[in-house]
Design a protein that fits this description.
- There is one protein chain.
- The chain is mainly beta.
- The chain has one domain (2-422): Porin (Beta Barrel), CATH 2.40.160.
- The protein contains 5 helices and 20 strands.
- It has helices spanning 2-14, 93-96, 271-277, 313-317, 320-323; strands spanning 18-23, 26-42, 57-73, 77-89, 125-129, 132-147, 150-157, 189-197, 203-209, 218-227, 230-239, 242-253, 256-267, 279-291, 294-303, 333-342, 347-356, 361-373, 376-387, 413-422.
- The chain has an 18-stranded antiparallel beta barrel.
- A hairpin with a 2-residue loop joins strand 18 and strand 19 (376-387).
- The radius of gyration is 22 Å and the shape is globular.
Length: 423
């Protein structure tokens, strides 16, 4: 581990933020960062023991380094590449086995998990041990060509849709979990994308996401426009074995910036089967800035795929949609609340709350960000679950439920300290 850290620091020492004019309209840009994060978690006592194999305490450091570059060739060609190496050490295999959903929600940095929706890829794991994972990820490798009929982008690229702050019902490619505090890097997906501008604020996107298995081929058709000051878009997509239609909206109502999303998704197996099994998800939220240093955000989510019965939560979190990292959470009615206060240009305080109304329960995530130097960021925070935990009367013998009596009350207590060095 020490050797890896020294190697990463050496890479950063040799790589500074650059913007080189190569002549003839060619420009080369580059940047890099190194991050280290230490995290610790305390699991509910009822989940600890031989029945689950889970320990009381979990802890581990994470290291990641990223190199990213961009080559502009005149006004038509744009080549982007991004590579990231990650090492994660854990006190127990349960920590590295955590996903974006479930009992360890948000515990493991997203770049530790293998990426999805790739046509071709090298083995991302350089070392795979129950308590030590070392990997690398070429998450950006694309070529953009600007034509008179729009832009064409081919290769590994970052795609993100929707207006939601905590959840994105219409984004099934590489969304962040609502408990992720570090959202700087999103996994790229392999796609061919054609964007046709229809005016200053309107466009049409057509995408093909190729896969080796013909049944897993994916495609997206999306259009966006601005009408009477409101940004809106509609989308129709096939993602592997599911189909989705949806829409989003964003605009201002007085001093509040309002956003909304609506999505219907179901199995790709004929119209009738899709209609009878379609899941409706909808959210409505807003951002309000009462003063220059304050920002308040709120969002309500209706999840038709969720439940009001906590005994069903674990089964929902283990379905394919959650295991692929396309959706997060199990409650039917949820909300996300956030407060951000900029103490100064270099110091910011924030508090996030994820709430499940049916239980009721909540997960609080207060954090502090401090730019120690112009290129050094220090971030620290804690995870505080609130609500009923594990019902010992039900016990761990009920595998489908594990005695979970609330969505967030059974989550672990935790804390983290992250340092990022940027070049």
């Amino acid at each position: 581990m020490k050797t890896l850290v020294l190697l990463v620091m050496g890479l950063l020492a040799c790589t500074s933020a650059l913007a080189l004019d190569l002549g003839d309209g060619a420009v080369l840009e580059g940047r890099a960062f190194y991050k280290t994060l230490g995290a610790g978690y305390a699991l509910p006592e009822e989940l600890v023991g031989d029945a689950t194999g889970l320990p009381r305490w979990l802890a581990g450091p994470y290291h990641s380094a990223r190199l990213q570059g961009r080559l502009l060739l005149g006004e038509r060609w744009d080549i982007s590449v991004g590579w990231q190496a990650t090492a994660a050490l854990a006190s127990d295999a349960a920590l590295l086995g955590g996903s974006g959903s479930g009992l360890l929600s948000g515990a493991v940095p997203a770049n530790v998990a293998p990426a999805k929706r790739r046509l071709v890829d090298f083995d991302p794991l350089l070392l795979d041990h129950p308590t030590l994972c070392v990997g690398h990820n070429m998450d950006l490798l694309s070529v953009r060509y600007k034509t008179g009929l729009g832009d064409v982008v081919a290769g590994r690229q970052v795609l993100a849709w929707g207006t939601g702050r905590f959840w994105n019902p219409i984004d099934r490619l590489a969304p962040f979990a609502p408990s992720d505090l570090d959202r700087e890097v999103r996994h790229g997906v392999d796609a061919v994308r054609w964007t046709l501008p229809l005016g200053p604020t309107a466009l049409v996107d057509a995408l093909w996401l190729p896969q080796r298995n013909s049944a897993d081929q994916s495609a997206v058709l999306r259009a966006q426009a601005n009408f009477l000051g409101w940004d809106s878009s509609v989308i129709a997509a096939k993602f592997a074995d599911s189909a989705l239609v949806g829409a989003d909206l964003a605009g201002d109502v007085g001093a509040v910036a309002v956003h909304a999303e609506l999505a219907l998704s179901g199995p790709w197996a004929g119209v009738e089967k899709w209609r009878s099994n379609a899941v409706l998800r909808a959210l409505l939220g807003g951002d309000w800035r009462p003063a220059d240093k304050w920002l308040l955000s709120g969002e309500y989510l209706f999840d038709g795929g969720g439940s009001t019965d906590p005994s069903h939560y674990l089964g929902i979190l283990r379905n394919s949609e959650h295991m692929r990292g396309e959706w997060f959470g199990a409650g039917r009615h949820r909300a996300g609340l956030a407060t951000v206060y900029r103490w100064s240009e270099v110091l910011g305080l924030s508090a996030t709350a994820l709430v499940s109304f049916a239980d009721p329960s909540a997960l609080l995530l207060p954090s502090v960000e401090w730019w120690f130097e112009q290129n050094i960021l220090v971030r620290t925070g804690v995870y505080v679950p609130m609500g009923r935990g594990v019902d010992s009367a039900v016990g761990l013998s009920t595998e489908a439920a594990l005695g979970i009596s609330s969505e967030y009350g059974s989550a672990p207590w935790g804390g983290f300290l992250q340092v990022g060095i940027y070049q």
